[in-house]
């Protein structure tokens, strides 16, 4: 979901700060996706689905 949102921001805003805000998120996902997914699964197993997951 974060990847999709960051791609909608990048290149679709008048302000250059929009692109600059999207790049760190994209880099984090690009380089650490397996780790992020593992941590999200561990969190969900321990705490149940997040509010965002219930809404999405």
Question: Any overview of this molecule?
Answer:
The protein is built from 3 helices and no strands. The protein has 56 residues and is an all-alpha fold. It has one domain.
Task: List the keywords.
56 residues; mainly alpha; 3 helices
Shape: elongated
Low-confidence parts lasting 5 or more residues at pLDDT below 50?
none
- The run of helices and strands is HHH
End-to-end separation: 9 Å
Arithmetic mean of pLDDT: 84
Oligomeric description of these chains: single chain
Q: Can I get a quick summary?
A:
The protein is mostly helical and 56 residues long. The chain contains three helices and no strands. The chain has helices at residues 2-9, 16-47, 51-55.
